[in-house]
Design a protein that fits this description.
77% of the residues lie in helices and 0% in strands. It is mainly α and 61 residues long.
Length: 61
């Protein structure tokens, strides 16, 4: 829901969650659930920002 809202505070929260829990999150599920919400809101830029933050803040492997 934070990504859906997209306010500055929400993005800060998303970043914090990704840094602390990113490796434990089911990102495929998050993406599946988020996609139709952002499509309904006509906010594809939120999906791009979410992906950018995943790449930047989630430690792989």
């Amino acid at each position: 829901m934070k990504t859906f809202a997209g306010r500055n505070k929400d993005w800060a929260d998303v970043t914090s969650i990704l840094e602390r829990q990113g490796a434990k999150l089911d990102l495929a599920l998050v993406r599946r659930e988020l996609a139709p919400l952002l499509a309904a809101k006509e906010a594809p830029e939120h999906a791009h920002e979410f992906e950018r933050r995943i790449a930047q803040h989630v430690k792989q492997g």
